[in-house]
TrEMBL record:
The keyword Heme does not apply. This is dipeptidase E. Keywords: Cytoplasm, Dipeptidase, Hydrolase, Protease, Serine protease. The lineage of its organism: Eukaryota, Metazoa, Ecdysozoa, Arthropoda, Hexapoda. Pfam families: Peptidase_S51. It catalyses: Dipeptidase E catalyzes the hydrolysis of dipeptides Asp-|-Xaa. It does not act on peptides with N-terminal Glu, Asn or Gln, nor does it cleave isoaspartyl peptides. It comes from Parnassius mnemosyne. It is found in: Cytoplasm. PANTHER family: ALPHA-ASPARTYL DIPEPTIDASE (PTHR20842:SF0), PROTEASE S51 ALPHA-ASPARTYL DIPEPTIDASE (PTHR20842). GO terms for biological process: proteolysis. Belongs to the peptidase S51 family. Its EC number is 3.4.13.21.
Length: 240
């Protein structure tokens, strides 16, 4: 494994595809490149650990990789310490981060990934916790983790499931852009990358490439908003 290796998906589901189908090629290539055959799945963003793990296993096992739920281990830290690859799934980001802190996994995962010893796949909430903080999640704060600071594999924030306002819709409430703008105006804010459904970020050492079937939107201080399409190199975002 060469440097940090991460694959960050906007979600597991994308319109027009079955679960994870839009990301199958990228996930298989990512795991094969890192010589991974066994994937440790973290279902902590949802409450039915067995069902969620079996759902992911039902997809990925057909691709030639075994999947084991982290919740089946009596010592989660030991399991993460010996794993070669981890997949953190989606659900509620606050619940997920709280459970990662409870099991003392935040720093462990960060250190192992940055040392090039653990390949990381995240989807939705699993992508949120891979970033600098969870301030830009779309989820409700159903529980308060010890901190909003997350694993920090990348030095910016992500907004999964990003969508533009449809001018024809009847909903007149706050738009996603407005909510991100409120965050960006805060002194502690980082840049925010809005991942459209079907978007994937591939982190390979100091390289960051936008992949998948949809692009992304970058929000920066001063109200700057930039569109990026699939295939573009956005490695500058890894510069802290």
């Amino acid at each position: 494994m060469s440097g940090r290796q991460a694959l960050l998906l906007s979600s597991s589901n994308c319109h027009g595809y079955s679960m994870l189908e839009f990301a199958k090629e990228e996930i298989c290539a990512f795991l094969n490149k890192n010589n991974v055959k066994e994937l440790l799945f973290v279902p902590f963003a949802q409450n039915n650990f067995d069902d969620y793990t079996n759902k992911i296993k039902g997809v990925i096992s057909h691709w030639g990789f075994s999947v084991t739920g982290l919740h089946t281990y009596s010592e989660p830290k030991k399991a993460v310490s010996s794993a070669k690859a981890i997949f953190i799934g989606g659900g509620n980001t606050f619940l997920l981060l709280d459970r990662l802190y409870t099991h003392n996994l935040v720093d462990l995962i960060k250190n192992r990934v940055l040392e090039g010893k653990l390949a990381y796949i995240g989807s939705s909430a699993g992508t949120n916790v891979a970033t600098k903080s969870i301030h830009t999640t779309n989820d409700m704060p159903i529980i308060y983790p010890p901190s909003f600071e997350a694993i920090g594999l990348v030095p910016f924030n992500i907004n999964p499931h990003y969508t533009d306002k449809n001018e024809n819709e009847t909903h007149k409430g706050e738009t996603r852009d407005q909510r991100i703008g409120e965050y960006i105006s805060m002194p502690h804010a980082n840049a925010v990358l809005g991942l459209r459904e079907g978007s994937i970020l591939h982190v390979d050492g100091n390289s960051l490439i936008l992949k998948g079937v949809a692009g992304a939107v970058l929000f920066q201080k001063g109200g700057k908003k930039t569109e990026y399409s699939v295939g573009q190199n956005i490695s500058f975002l890894l510069e802290e």
